[in-house]
Amino acid sequence: MKRLVWVRTAPPDIPGSMAAYGDLARRAAASFAAGWERATCDLFDPLGGSSMWRHHLWRWRNARRVLAKHPADLYHWLDGSMAAFIPKELLGRSVVTVHDLIPLLQWRGELPGRPSLPAAWLVRRGVRALAGCAGVCADSRATQADLARLAGIAGGVPVIPVPVRPLPGPGTAMDLPEKFVLHVGNNATYKNRLGVLDVFARLREVPDLHLVLAGPPPSPEVRAAAAGLARVHFAESVDDAQLSGLYRRAALFLFPSLYEGYGMPVLEAMAAGCPVVCSTASALVEVAGEAALWAPARDPEALAAQCRTLLADEVLRRRMGERGRARAAAFDIASMGRSLLKWHEQALDALEKKKESHG
């Protein structure tokens, strides 16, 4: 019996894409478990807390000890940004999912938000660790290309798309306006929340249109920009049932990110039948295909024009919603499970052959 350990670095009780990905990966692989024993190892401070550096320090001190309690043929690290914490002796038995290379892009100055010196050191250490792992996969072809361009990891990097995250039916009704544009995201500069506000400001001629920004509490800059506009609402820390209701009731979903390694919210909006306007960030075009209207992230007028087109044409909105549902349905959990199993088997076979060649 082969043994695989999922290495989870995101606390499951803190909402976020990494916790969601871990749940999806484990569920996907469970359908193809023949010949494999699977377990999960948690690498985050059990005392909790929201401080990223607190969890980093705990991992630095405890990763080797904790992983030693979970012997495995293969370790699957669910978040590539945590590769810096892989013990050297486990690199050859570790496979890693890379969702994006945002910290490296920021360090190189290609995205706003340059990391601190300690963060930059971790980024560089993590990239070196990826090169020594038994395998690396990417969520998207865009991230696959970034791995080749920025980390020198080319060839043998499979793309395993993330399936649609199942959301519950709408829960307790939220007090929402009748007609609104929806954005889901955090305050990271690349998420372009200020750009969302700029686009909405250009739609002031559309009667009774509101904007709902779902996510964490806004930064002071975002709150200040929103204060100068009418009909802007912040839906803070919504649960999945509330998020489902937002997707279903929105007139359209606006997602003008400067960069995305994948774009889960776009997939969720499409699955709910919500028409999408997004930026031309390569991963978003890859995920949305022809089921969305696009414009460059730094061209708010072009994005606003795409929004106007949808808001003025109910037939087009219905058609784009139908395209979105069909597109999202192709990102299914069974396909992810088959791809993960194939990747794990290939990585383990390569390790066995390497052992044999060394006698």
Describe the structure.
- With 359 residues, the protein is of the alpha/beta class.
- The chain has helices spanning 17-30, 52-68, 102-107, 117-131, 141-151, 193-201, 220-227, 240-249, 264-271, 282-288, 300-311, 314-329, 333-357, and strands at 2-8, 36-42, 74-77, 94-98, 135-138, 180-184, 210-215, 232-236, 252-255, 276-279, 292-295.
- Helices cover 44% and strands 15% of the residues.
- Helix 9 (264-271) crosses helix 12.
- It is globular.
- The two termini are 22 Å apart.
| SS class | alpha/beta
Strand content: 15-25%
Total DSSP helices: 13
The shape, in one word, is globular
Query: Biggest sheet, strands in spatial order?
Result: 8-7-6-9-10-11
- The termini sit apart by 22 Å
Kindly state the mean pLDDT as a whole number?
A: 93
Q: What oligomeric state do the depicted chains represent? A: single chain
Give the beta-strand count: 11
User: How large is the radius of gyration?
Assistant: 21 Å
- Name the helix and strand elements from N-terminus to C-terminus, one letter apiece: EHEHEEHHEHEHEHEHEHEHEHHH
Question: pLDDT under 50 segments (min length 5)?
Answer: none
How many strands, which pairing sense, and closed or not: the largest β-sheet?
Answer: 6 strands, parallel
In helices, the fraction of residues equals 40-55%
Strand and helix layout:
Elements: E1 2-8, H1 17-30, E2 36-42, H2 52-68, E3 74-77, E4 94-98, H3 102-107, H4 117-131, E5 135-138, H5 141-151, E6 180-184, H6 193-201, E7 210-215, H7 220-227, E8 232-236, H8 240-249, E9 252-255, H9 264-271, E10 276-279, H10 282-288, E11 292-295, H11 300-311, H12 314-329, H13 333-357
Parallel strand pairs: 1-2, 1-3, 3-4, 4-5, 6-7, 6-9, 7-8, 9-10, 10-11
